[in-house]
Amino acid sequence: MTPSVNALEVTVRLKRGLQSCSSNKTGSFSEAPCIVQTLLVSASDNSSCLAHLLIQVEIYANSSLAHNASENRTVIPNQVYQPLGPCPCNLTAGACDIRCCCDQECSSNAIELFREACFTGVFGGDVNPLFDQLCSVPRAHGVPGWFPFLCVQSSLANSPFLGHFYHGSVSSGPHAAFEVYLHTDPKDSSDFGYKQGDPLMTVEKAYFTVPQVSLAGQCVQNAPVGFLQNFDVRCIADLEVSREQGAIIDTKIKSGAIGGIVTPKIIYEEATDLDRFITSTETLLQAGSAPRNVTVEEHYVFRWNNNTISEINVRILRAEINAHQKGTMTQRFTVRFVSYNSGDEKETSGNPGYQLGRPIRAMDSNRANPVTLHLWQSAGRGLCTSATLRPVSFGEDALSGCLLEVAINENCTQLREKAVDMLDSLRQATHVAMRGNSDYNNLSDGWLEIIRADSPDTGADLSEGSADGTCLDVPAQLSIRILVSDAGAVEGITQQEILGAETRVSSVNWQFQCGLTCEQKADLFPLSASVQFIRIPAQLPRPPTRFQINFTEYDCNRNDVCWPQLLYPLTRYYQGEPYSQCLAKGFLLVFFAMLAVFLSDPWTRRCRAWHSAAIGGLIDHRL
């Protein structure tokens, strides 16, 4: 006996002869020798026995290594008609799992050892339990009197635990394969004009498709193009299976009028910098292999008039690669709808306020052409030299970056100048527009000067280089902060405007990263740029009252339970639905609540008592 842990260690040695297993096992150990040992442990206090523990062990020869378990195939039943796992607690193949009474590999003698402690529920093999909504199931103890309010009259074979709903009295037999028809005939209503969101149709009564990115992040090759829906997506394609898309040449699109047809005007261009699009390349040179063309960018411009399409312009950027080149390629697809009478002027980002997701309107007062604030769109290895630029979208906080190659003996002054040039390429604008339709030709039409915080000094005061590959105060981070606020409403739509913008550059200390040895190879210096939109309230918030300061348990911002918002959908602060619909739904909810109270057990017992009392009084009155 060990006093510290209050435990007793007992060692048992069996010197009796070996006893073979009595049951004939089936499975992977059917041909292996087997012996059984049984031990009875009793716990007693003085002369009274308190508990028994029967231990029976079946010992097999170590023949599992010679058995190839991969030869057998598991047949998965159809879950519509049979549970997928009839015995979930059967976790070990070819052996008996303790307390798993549904395990077919357990002998009857082994099951008798733990029959009183079998697993229950779905894990123990009850994979098709009765559910409470069946009318034939008695009401469970402790549930309200109105439960279930409505019940399902069905047989036990139609259970939701099988993954199949009840569809009627006639049940079809199991099919060899489950077939799903995803492709249906396209619905063509383009002869009467397109509506926003309608898919564009071709003369062959098929959808006009352009690769797009789905909600799951995957690239869908045959995605229909919606009328008046712009997008700009990038897809990753394999060079071995990617080919030049030439079907657009013979495509004719319905204009939206009866008998109207529009033929796209296509312009082909050749890509020069392939590192922007192709990564992880591996060229297999073979004699007589001719180069092939792949499409890296497709830009579609649709001109629309009312509910019809008047013109389609397509610009396709192609690249010539080796016929047996391997790797991945970044493809870009853009679709833009412009008005038929619009020229080359810059598109607005709202009228008058900004629209969410539209580019920020900016300009450089020293230049004639409009510019905007940008972020990096990395491609390939993520180098700054191959990164493209994308405009900053209104109301969307974003973070981007790229990598700058730096050698171990890099001149620190040149590194700072190079980093500043890369960061300044994102903020070439000097003014930002307050509204989404500010005129570029009139600087007084709501244009705000961008506040540029002092950039780090790249002068000669700092060290030009260091023997250990260290540079101090290297510009590395660009922060763009934009103040926005609500500026009224037009036809019930809130209009947002910009109140101010600031750009700030932060510096870091850089040191060349060496492995075991400092080799003469370039290191990567990360540059980053971030955009943050800060919302300024249109009116100053109302100061808290003394009650709100003292009784913080009623403060919705400090507690998980907010009692003042118990009836929030019925108040004027809820803007999700019209107030009349919210009020009607509230009354309907109150009606159902009162109906549930009237059908509950306390109310029915009281009604029965009143009814019995009324009948008793009527009988006494007659007597």
Percent of residues in beta strands? 25-35%
Helix tally? 5
Biggest β-sheet: count, sense, barrel? 6 strands, mixed
Unreliable stretches: 24-31, 63-72, 164-183
- Specify Rg, calculated over alpha carbons: 38 Å
The secondary structure category is mainly beta
**End-to-end gap:** 85 Å
Overall geometric form: extended
Number of beta strands: 23
Roughly how much helix do the residues carry, as a percent range?
10-25%
Average pLDDT, rounded to a whole number, is 76
Question: What does it look like?
Answer:
The protein has helices at residues 108-113, 412-424, 546-550, 579-598, 601-622, and strands spanning 19-20, 34-45, 48-60, 212-213, 219-220, 231-238, 253-254, 261-262, 265-270, 278-283, 292-305, 308-321, 325-339, 362-363, 374-377, 388-391, 398-406, 431-433, 447-449, 451-452, 470-490, 493-511, 523-535. The protein has 623 residues and is mainly β. Strands 6, 9, 10, 11, 12 and 13 form a six-stranded mixed sheet that branches. The chain has a five-stranded mixed sheet with strand order 17-23-21-22-20, with helices on one face. Strands 1-2-3 form a three-stranded antiparallel sheet, with no helix packed on it. Mean pLDDT is 76; it is low at 24-31, 63-72 and 164-183. The radius of gyration is 38 Å and the shape is extended. 11% of the residues lie in helices and 29% in strands.
Describe this protein with a few key phrases.
five-stranded mixed β-sheet; 623 residues; 5 helices; mainly beta
